[in-house]
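Sample entry (174 residues):
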Amino acid sequence: MRRRAVLTASLGALALLAGCGSEDGEQAAPGPRHKAAGPPDAPQPGRYRTIVRVTGVAIPGMDAKQAAAMFGPQGHASETCLAVGDAMQGMLRFAAQAERGKCSYDRFSASGGKVEGVMACVVAQGVVTRAQVSGTYSPTGSLLKITAEAGASGQPDSAMRMDSEIASERIGDC
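Predicted structure, serialized as tokens:
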């Protein structure tokens, strides 16, 4: 049960790293006739499709096939709408979203179409997830590769690792 909670929390942390817009139902971005000044490499407002795919999993007590079967090869797709005000904040919005709750970046940089960072999240009492992220981004999408490791303090045999990719692309207006 504890492993499932840690895995769920780890996926949640990864999803925050990819979050590029407001949830459906929130205020949608105006059409392309509304342009606002922001960083030169800021994402364009609009509807984005994001696919989170787990590419590797290592869980103590499970063989690789069992661990991989928990997530499936196709990944999880979602669509969100990125509002003009959020787009103006550029890649720094990604870092701010990820730092909500009990997460913080040890380091984060995003410039020239490249992003790198290391984030730590307290996901349960005594359990910390550390995630390394690297990737590329443009005004119409991003591809992030993330390696997350989680474990209970004082329990070296509890360490888990998850590798994932988060691909996001602009698919149209909201």
